[in-house]
Amino acid sequence: MARRDRSRAGAPADDPGHRSAAPLRPVARAVTMLVAFACMVGFAVVLARLTLEPSAGSEALTHSNFTPGDSIDDYLSQPAFRDTVKQLGGNILLGVPFGMLLPVVLPRTRGLVRVGLATAVTMVLVELAQGAFVTGRTFDIDDVILNTTGALLGYLLLGRRLGRAVHPRRRHWWHRFTKRDVADA
Predict the structure, then answer these.
(1) How confident is the model over 51-70, as pLDDT tens digits?
(2) How far is CA 17 from CA 14, 50, 148, 157, 158, in A?
(3) Distances (CA, A) of 82 to 36, 78, 115
(4) How far, in Å, CA of 51 to CA of 65, rounded?
(5) 142 near 127, Cβ under 8 Å?
(6) Distances (CA, A) of 49 to 19, 37, 55, 80, 171
(7) pLDDT in tens, 121-131
(8) Alpha-carbon distances of 170 from 23, 61, 107, 149, 184, rounded to whole Å
(9) HEC profile of the chain
(10) Which residues is 140 bridged to in the sheet?
């Protein structure tokens, strides 16, 4: 009887198949958050250097894109495969660190939808700044889509685990009614 009650609240302690992520100790948590914050600052510097530097040579070639998919179609129709990979892959890779680090630095952004929304808003602001203030750069909605896709991949690959390791789930008041332990969620 007692075993059944324990299994309802969570997996029994002697179950070898059950893995529960142990929260980090306070010192390790602080160090991890500090490293993640330093990485996020480094990411911001790289992002600014890649996206907010003027490109006077390409000023005549640039045009804004507000239609999703137009620039992606242009990239895919380029004869040079290397340029296509560079454009599409580069924009996707640019978002990956955001998806990995955001849940560690800001625990309220944990979750696929929250990471996607935070990334999309941030990248729209970056694209707006590009279009408004940087010579030879314009707003491109496809860059936002590709960067957000990269952030979602980064979150799914590593960000989810890092976020949970540094900020373990808390038991909320509604868990009393669902008869579910925090370790089950």
Answers:
(1) 777 766 556 557 788 899 89
(2) 9, 45, 34, 22, 22
(3) 32, 9, 30
(4) 16
(5) no
(6) 42, 18, 12, 25, 42
(7) 999 998 898 88
(8) 11, 52, 12, 28, 12
(9) CHHHHHHHHCCCCCCCCCCCCCCCCHHHHHHHHHHHHHHHHHHHHHHHHHHCCCCHHHHHHCCCECCCCHHHHHHHCCCCHHHHHHHHHHHHHHHHHHHHHHHHHCHHHCCHHHHHHHHHHHHHHHHHHHHHHCCCCCCEHHHHHHHHHHHHHHHHHHHHHHHHHHCCCCCCCCHHHHCCCHHHC
(10) 65
State the amino acid at position 150 in one-letter form. Answer: G
Mean pLDDT, the chain, integer: 79
Tokens 């991890």, located at residue: 32
End-to-end CA distance of the chain: 23
Which pair of tokens denotes residue 35? Answer: 């490293």
Q: Specify the length of the chain in residues.
A: 185
CB 60 within 8 A of CB 128: no
- Cβ-Cβ contacts under 8 Å for 30 (sequence gap 6 or more): none
Q: Would you say residue 113 has pLDDT above 90?
A: yes
